[in-house]
Amino acid sequence: MGDELAGSPKDRFLTVYGRKPVLEALGDPDLRVDKVILADTARGPAAAEIQRAAKAAGVPVQRASAHRVKVLAGNGKQDQGVLADVVAPRMRALAAALDDRRPPARLLLLDGITTPANVGMILRTATAAGLSGVIVPRRGVAALDPMVVKSSAGVAFRAPMLRCGSAREAAEMLVEAGYSLYALGASASTSIFDVELPQRSAFVLGGETEGVGEAVAELVTEWVSIPMPGDVESLNVSAAAAVLSFELVRRGVS
Predict the structure, then answer these.
(1) Model pTM?
(2) Which run of H or of E encompasses 111?
(3) Residues 6+ apart with CB under 8 A from 143
(4) Are 98 and 178 contacting, i.e. CB atoms less than 8 angstroms apart?
(5) Where do the RNA 2-O ribose methyltransferase substrate binding domain residues begin and end (predicted)?
(6) What is the pLDDT of residues 52-95, one digit of tens each?
(7) Beta-ladder partners of 36
């Protein structure tokens, strides 16, 4: 548990890649960039501009092979030979959050949401609603890349993200920590507006096509639904997250 509580660099930084996103991060006075990594093949005016911007911001620039930059960016085509690690001050390991003297009362758990736009919009909504944690597993969910940041309109940098290996791992940790686990399902008879919530609750948001995975479903305390009297089967997961987040705002506990 000690290593998990300490977290890894991936639990502290959001990595952005590409010349324009890196320059925007360096030029934003509200962001703290830990370092810039520039491919050793990057030369010319574009590389010089990044180096000048990093120097002005007091950010160290490291050189690495083009292959190494691609590996670190997790993107084979659009890194343009440069990436930056941006400090996300509210991102940390889930284990650390659960070990707090006063752990978060309400959490969202993303399970199998692979569209970056949905992840970004959920982070934006949850942050706007003042929720104290969105669990974003490292596996099975869209990587926290520039598409997520863009979809969140930049809010992802300061969103309360909690990291762990997988959604199943998160669910097990939550149950062990005394949380009740709720999952959204269209056929559930209990409405999200009527369900009685205990002091610690976590809400699972399933993937765009498969919904909540079987591994997590096994640990769900209760399934709840969003009432939809209109002739629509389901909502986009980011829209459902918005309804849920602001229902929690209405209840006054985040």
Answers:
(1) 0.88
(2) strand 106-111
(3) 74, 116
(4) no
(5) 15-92
(6) 999 999 999 999 999 999 888 876 667 889 999 999 999 999 99
(7) 61, 84
